[in-house]
Design brief:
The protein contains three helices and four strands, in the order ββαββαα. The protein is an alpha+beta fold and 90 residues long. It has one domain: Pemi-like Protein 1, Chain: D (Ribbon), CATH 2.10.260.10. 0% of the residues are buried.
């Protein structure tokens, strides 16, 4: 598993960069500006996730929302079974 990264949001909610769609072989890809990649802590080859917002926009984030939900469930389980897990760890 990769370490989850924190994204620094634009305090004014303004667009932070333009994305260009390009043909790449038989597919279509997009190019991220270098400053946007730096702001999102992304490097070439990293995985990030796109989600559709209620307003119809796209949110790109370097963390997996499904992973976050799974971790929330795991944390609840660890809290409930704290004593049993402590005994197993001995």
């Amino acid at each position: 598993m990769t370490q989850q990264r924190k994204v620094v949001a634009d305090p004014r909610g303004q667009p932070v960069g333009a994305v260009t769609l390009k043909r790449i072989g038989n597919s279509t890809g997009f190019l991220l500006p270098k400053d946007l990649m730096a702001r999102l802590n992304l490097a070439t080859g990293d995985t990030f996730y796109a989600t559709v917002t209620p307003e119809g926009g796209i949110r790109l984030t370097p963390y997996d929302p499904k992973f976050e939900r799974a971790m929330a469930v795991a944390r609840r389980g660890m809290k409930v079974y704290r004593n049993a897990l402590a005994e197993l760890a001995k």
